[in-house]
Design goal:
Blueprint lengths: L3 E5 L7 H10 L4 E6 L1 H6 L7 E4 L6 H11 L5 E4 L5 H14 L3 E7 L2 E4 L1
Parallel strand pairs: 1-2, 1-4, 2-3, 4-5
Antiparallel strand pairs: 5-6
Helix pairs in contact: 3-4
Length: 115
């Protein structure tokens, strides 16, 4: 599989624009958004996305395990620009537990950057 975007979409709408631009400005073979039901109902991505729905009030292990069981195989581009520290830590722990290959991705004034 080619480029897979894995992005956290938090409840603060202030960072949704960044995620929306990342979705629309890059070519992705698959897009996976991690959010809660409210985020899924209120965010309108420009392209088809798969969702990993988590309860951000649940315990860390529950969130991590939910993310881990739905992570795809392949190399991932991970965006943590949106969301909470708890969600970010759960993503990182799930990636490590599954031994996923990933790099972080962010939009800058000079375009998309991967780290």
């Amino acid at each position: 599989m080619g480029k897979i975007l894995l992005a956290v979409l938090g409840i603060g709408k202030g960072t949704w624009g960044h995620v929306a631009r990342l979705i629309s400005e890059e070519e992705w073979d698959k897009i996976i958004l991690i959010s809660n039901e409210w985020g899924k109902e209120n965010f309108a991505p420009a392209k088809e996305c798969d969702w990993i729905i988590v309860n951000n009030r649940a315990g860390f292990e529950i969130i991590k395990d939910e993310i881990k069981k739905q992570l795809p195989d392949g190399e991932l581009a991970v965006s943590l620009i949106s969301g909470s520290g708890k969600e970010h830590m759960a993503v990182l722990a799930a990636l490590k537990a599954k031994k996923s290959k990933y790099e972080t991705v962010i939009l800058t004034g000079e375009g998309t950057k991967y780290y």
